[in-house]
TrEMBL record, chains A, B, C, D:
One of its GO terms (biological process) is rhamnose catabolic process. It comes from Brevibacterium aurantiacum. InterPro entries: L-rhamnose_isomerase (IPR050337), Rhamnose_iso-rel (IPR013457), Rhamnose_isomerase (IPR009308), Xyl_isomerase-like_sf (IPR036237). This is L-rhamnose isomerase. It is an enzyme of class 5 (isomerase). Keywords: Cytoplasm, Isomerase, Manganese, Metal-binding, Rhamnose metabolism. Its EC number is 5.3.1.14. It holds the Pfam family RhaA. GO terms for molecular function: L-rhamnose isomerase activity; manganese ion binding.
Amino acid sequence: MTAPTGFTDITDELAAQAIELPSWAFGNSGTRFKVFGTPGTPRDPFEKIADAAKVHELTGLAPQVALHIPWDRCDFEALATHAGQLGVRLGTVNSNTFQDDDFKFGALTHVDERIRSKAIDHHIECIDVMDATGSRDLKIWLAEGSNYPGQADMRGRQDRLHDSLAKIYDRLGESQRLVLEYKFFEPSFYHTDVPDWGTSFAQVSALGDKAKVCLDTGHHAPGTNIEFIVMQLLRLGRLGSFDFNSRFYADDDLMVGAADPFQLFRIIHEVIRGGGLNNPDVAFMLDQCHNVENKIEGQMRSVLNVQEMTARALLLDTAALTAAQESGDVIAANDIFMDAFYTDVRPALAEWRTSRRLPANPVQAFRESGYQEQIEAERVGGTQAGWGA
Amino acid sequence: MTAPTGFTDITDELAAQAIELPSWAFGNSGTRFKVFGTPGTPRDPFEKIADAAKVHELTGLAPQVALHIPWDRCDFEALATHAGQLGVRLGTVNSNTFQDDDFKFGALTHVDERIRSKAIDHHIECIDVMDATGSRDLKIWLAEGSNYPGQADMRGRQDRLHDSLAKIYDRLGESQRLVLEYKFFEPSFYHTDVPDWGTSFAQVSALGDKAKVCLDTGHHAPGTNIEFIVMQLLRLGRLGSFDFNSRFYADDDLMVGAADPFQLFRIIHEVIRGGGLNNPDVAFMLDQCHNVENKIEGQMRSVLNVQEMTARALLLDTAALTAAQESGDVIAANDIFMDAFYTDVRPALAEWRTSRRLPANPVQAFRESGYQEQIEAERVGGTQAGWGA
Amino acid sequence: MTAPTGFTDITDELAAQAIELPSWAFGNSGTRFKVFGTPGTPRDPFEKIADAAKVHELTGLAPQVALHIPWDRCDFEALATHAGQLGVRLGTVNSNTFQDDDFKFGALTHVDERIRSKAIDHHIECIDVMDATGSRDLKIWLAEGSNYPGQADMRGRQDRLHDSLAKIYDRLGESQRLVLEYKFFEPSFYHTDVPDWGTSFAQVSALGDKAKVCLDTGHHAPGTNIEFIVMQLLRLGRLGSFDFNSRFYADDDLMVGAADPFQLFRIIHEVIRGGGLNNPDVAFMLDQCHNVENKIEGQMRSVLNVQEMTARALLLDTAALTAAQESGDVIAANDIFMDAFYTDVRPALAEWRTSRRLPANPVQAFRESGYQEQIEAERVGGTQAGWGA
Amino acid sequence: MTAPTGFTDITDELAAQAIELPSWAFGNSGTRFKVFGTPGTPRDPFEKIADAAKVHELTGLAPQVALHIPWDRCDFEALATHAGQLGVRLGTVNSNTFQDDDFKFGALTHVDERIRSKAIDHHIECIDVMDATGSRDLKIWLAEGSNYPGQADMRGRQDRLHDSLAKIYDRLGESQRLVLEYKFFEPSFYHTDVPDWGTSFAQVSALGDKAKVCLDTGHHAPGTNIEFIVMQLLRLGRLGSFDFNSRFYADDDLMVGAADPFQLFRIIHEVIRGGGLNNPDVAFMLDQCHNVENKIEGQMRSVLNVQEMTARALLLDTAALTAAQESGDVIAANDIFMDAFYTDVRPALAEWRTSRRLPANPVQAFRESGYQEQIEAERVGGTQAGWGA
């Protein structure tokens, strides 16, 4: 098996690639109708970290794990030590404004100053966690909004959001960042306070240079050209991080690359075009739910999908592409672009993986490792982690 | 205040209108992220019926309550008696193929004959309930599907679905019906086994005359012309029932008429045009979730919205409309159509309601009745009903 | 007939309302499949102005007419005089980067400096027209993009767009403005260079205070909460103008208010909330195509729809709404909001119109005026105006 | 270069594959805003056939050409002879109900019996053409509908559609078929008379066995699972033909496989699963517009895309897939499915093509053939073909 032309030129970039895993991907998840539990599901943050470390051990791609507060509340120094012993480190800290009864009608946007303060304090606590774990990024998914026209004053909420974010921003350390995620809809159905990249961009621009936008690939209207937004946010210097996943309809949170692999290719192409690959300013993270598939394998498949698409995008003949583009040769430009996408990089990646003492087929290696059987045997009793845990 | 021209001609139709309430609308509901509990929420089917009966008492619009099995399992004869004492009756029985662990990968469509049998048996149990309650309709929302391409064999599942439905159909009594609901997506994200009206129509047509389609107004792709489907199903003699609600994005399950009142008007116009209004073959039901609003008031507002739009649609000057249509006068036809929609029927309805010894403003009457305070005081302890209850 | 409570308080606002008509609405239009011609269609800008003036004469709502270059090239001083004699004035000047063969692969974004210069020069010509007509606004709909992945370098195009816009911006007079319209898709199918409000906002913010965003109500992804964008752009001080129309699917360019009247109500509510009503900084314009309906009547119906929804939105009991919102009373807040929408303002508007010496029913008055018959008789020979004219 | 495992087993199927080209793909096309003309564009049906034959000569994939009446009206016997001399044959005949001024408000659905008769007669003429050309299929794209609520009586139109289709169906010869295409929207914006597969299915089922459904891959709502419909129509015995193209937003008519190659893979997988590949009952056709790319190359790329995806889908390890599906192993099933999609069949196809005396790279061979230069030189004067020609 020979590698595709140019493969050896891209291995440094591949070796540098790091994708952050969400701790919650290892816990149970589901739809509003049903959460199917599975044997071996972690019961605490330490077990989540162990599963994440297994993904990294077998893929070499996932050295960092994102936390979610309050789901992962524990002794954070002990957790950081535990992570280090397993070969990974703690990463982005995610706040939660959607599960406290007080936040039914808003948190950072709430009309009641007392509840806004409570929400701000929650974010201060998150920054305290960041200080303890050495995390750089505070990620805020603003899951606030309203269900009915007239229910809320959208304008007032937007202004209060700015005030709340400014207070949180002021608490950030020198090298810390605030990353504001946007989402088209859900859990609110009429309006969402940060529904699009434009709102996130406007809000973070009003804060300062340490505030960035998080782009979750599942958080857009049908038909949205997501790679355009990637391009634009990189151009504007405001792309802080990705939440990778894939979707057919809404925020399905499927494995990244599963629904539309070509879209993932196009997104990564724009990341490379805009200087975002292996750029510390742009965090690559997963945000997924493995409702019906094995969770650890689901995470492995996802980071491998990102790696495979990165390899394909790196192999693109950009000089030939530019020439075709500039001459208005639509067919040639598209052919060159598709040629990179259609190149099967998997055998070369398997060989290269072996050369780095990683299993050629990480998912198969996981299945042969006995790890799943072990955790199913060990993790008995207690309460499995989930979004409510 | 004078009533709109022609109002007296439509009051017989209005008096005949009956909308079925879903028992689960009175229980707690939410998104996959959070279910907000509220004081006074029913703890058992009897309390749900009591709340539904209150809606009927104050609106005169909701004499029937739909049940969901297993959520409403209880002594059904006692429940029927209870309902009768409160002035309502038990209606459609809804089955559930989405919450048993065995049904993770399908129920009526499952590749394993044992699990299919279990799912069929569940429906037989539902028909037993119908026999006990005197219900006519078995409603099946086929919440089955897959999340990933390749996960399932869609064709085999479709064939097995037919076999399973045929077995259930055979068990129906002479005057009972099977109503098959379709849904665009959720809880599955790649494929759904009954995703559109065409599939439901093809499946029920293969069963026999007692099988019909249920149209849930929230279960379509963005941009779908729902009233066209209403027209078509009535024309084909297969519209069995409506699940009314409204939505901005996905299956939001908001109060019917809240998101797009003009769409509700158009739907009811086609119902009237096709002979479906106050036609016993076409059941009007709600299927909604009151995540943030008062549940009883939410049901009241919803049946009132249906009534108001029915009144507007009945007031349409169909002779003038037909003349404008036939002459190709687009502006006039649209004006005549909009005139009915824009006519404010609310004062006339309030007067007419008073004439029938109903409160002019049912929601206000509810607020003044003390019922909410009473149930909040009484319903303490126990477990509030919800989708998992 | 009594007017709704509070109607007399809002007549000053109603009297101040002015909606700009697009000259091209009076020419023939259609889909890519067929343009149906109609008798009486204008053959030059002067006849378009005459039709627009007739709309204003009968509604009192449309004192200004937008031009499109090159479609409306003529002796602009003569045209301005003609307009003035008919009681209207010339307004926004629209440029065109989508019909010159040189612009097949871009205009202001083109990779070839020669073509960019040509496109910039076209806009300079437009500003010359503005100087001649006394127009304030140059509106740029950036109909540029690509059809296939790989066809174009989106990032480079975005940078070149900035450079081109900056050159055009520099040519603006002291009191002139540049308004940049965004559009989700069409005529390009893979990427559009200004596809969303965020991109338009970022581009105009980089230019200066005289650059604003134009919001066309038909230019969004399915499910987009448009009134949220209205709120946000007003909040950010960047809402320059509206292109009003309505749509069911894509950019259908139907009469405003025809597809979803409640959405129009919500949009105008946010305009009022944000101080945009009768604010000279926010131009109200139509941008519509009357493919199958009478064009003059279509424009009349549209401005009347805007007026009716403005009246309803002005009648909203904002104090009661705020109280309900602040107390978390979702049902009451929604009821108050819907009450304004459902209030039938048409009889009161007809009376008020009569009091201003306008016809109570402008469309009927037009039909009785003989104007249509007159133009059908007079406008014989020549070439009817259309998008290619 | 070695071929993928199993490649030799699929070459018989590949050799049998035949894709029909639309004559109109070689004429000029565009959006409602602009049609860009290109040198060498055919000026009559004979030149269109010549271009189509060139595609077949170089790819071996396109032996048949579909006609559109009235665009291709000519001496059909001469045209058939011309086609035969160039190595291709005439195929499906497409009717046109959207460009005659009489059809502004409908054709087969029109309320006026005179206009319905005219539309029916047009289809009789098409069947006469079929008799002359030896074509089997009459394809009807029912481009009828309305733009405004109230404009038309949808129910009456549906009934009249049935009557009209029945008259046309009666005229079919023994071995001829009627294929009814559905489309979500455009050119109508409120309602379309055959908007979905369910309507087409219901209408053709009411006609008889010679009536089938045409599935155009660009004619669905956002998010529609098209392969599900393919499966269902094959299962119901009603899939008559495909119109292949691709789209990002609406009916973009891009080259098939260009927007979402994985979707094309899934569609062809279901075709194979349901016995539709190389089944004479299921016609594979293209329906595309090459607005900005070279038209002949665009057709070549499209048939090659279909061939490549067919090869990938044929290579799927169905035994392993079934085993994984039946064991509920979601990750394995998806991996097996994706493995086929990711297999790069292009080198093996190039070798196989060479073995059949076809150019390894057909597009490059076309570029080197001088054909484009030749037609640009020869086809001077006259009127280039387009949708209006």
